Amino acid sequence: MLKVVEIFYSLQGEGNFTGVPSIFIRLHGCNLKCSFCDDALHKGDFKLYDFEQILSIIGAFPSKQIIITGGEPTLYNLIDFIDFLHEKDYFVCVETNGYKFENIKNANWITYSPKDWDNIKQDGWSELKFIVSNDSEIGKITDIKSDKPIFVQPLNFFDKPNRQNLDFCIGLVKKYPHLKLSIQMHKFLGVR
């Protein structure tokens, strides 16, 4: 059984799969209390679902791409759930702060968004995503070298873009071309 806050169908608005129609499974709870967290929903009500109940919900959508998000999904051991989804031909992406990579090691794609820039884990992820504002100390991320994508994403307002932080991030990727820009496209389009 998983504590599920919501399941919905939309476009991925961030990172490598921006623009891809995806089914989002938002799990309850997080091990952190970030002041800039843009989704209080993972802290509220939830329903307990088993794998088959989740399958009956996601089966109504035409996409085969799943985004497991939260909160922090690695609070749960998701190995069996991810295997279950793979058996049903789903491509499984997980968005994590890196709490327990071992709980999601069989995912097809792992977006790692570290909040402690002094202790960035070197493996277990497919892409890095840093939430950046115009006063962030960016030296810790501009020096990272990897053959995997490294995104900077402006710290936006809850329901709309923050132009000042966006302009800062645009300047960063122009100065450091090994970085990529992630913009939370859904906030620009006004879609969920």
Brief write-up:
The chain has helices at residues 51-58, 79-87, 139-142, 163-175, 185-189, and strands at residues 2-11, 21-27, 47-49, 65-69, 91-96, 109-112, 127-132, 150-154, 180-181. It has 192 residues and is of the alpha/beta class.
Mean pLDDT: 90
Q: How does the overall form come out from the CA principal axes? A: globular
Largest sheet: 9 strands, mixed
Radius of gyration: 16 Å
Fourth CATH level, the homologous superfamily: Aldolase class I
Helix content: 10-25%
Strand percent estimate:
25-35%
Distance between the termini: 26 Å
Under the CATH scheme, the architecture is Alpha-Beta Barrel
Order of helices and strands: EEEHEHEEEHEHEH
User: From the helix content, strand content and strand pairing, which structural class follows?
Assistant: alpha/beta
Helical stretch tally: 5
Number of domains: 1
Strand order of the largest sheet: 3-1-2-4-5-6-7-8-9
Task: Report the CATH topology name.
Answer: TIM Barrel
Give me the count of strands: 9
Report the CATH C-level class. Answer: Alpha Beta
Q: Which residue ranges are poorly predicted, with pLDDT under 50 across at least 5 consecutive positions?
A: none
Layout of strands and helices, then pairs:
Blueprint: E1 2-11, E2 21-27, E3 47-49, H1 51-58, E4 65-69, H2 79-87, E5 91-96, E6 109-112, E7 127-132, H3 139-142, E8 150-154, H4 163-175, E9 180-181, H5 185-189
Parallel strand pairs: 2-4, 4-5, 5-6, 6-7, 7-8, 8-9
Antiparallel strand pairs: 1-2, 1-3
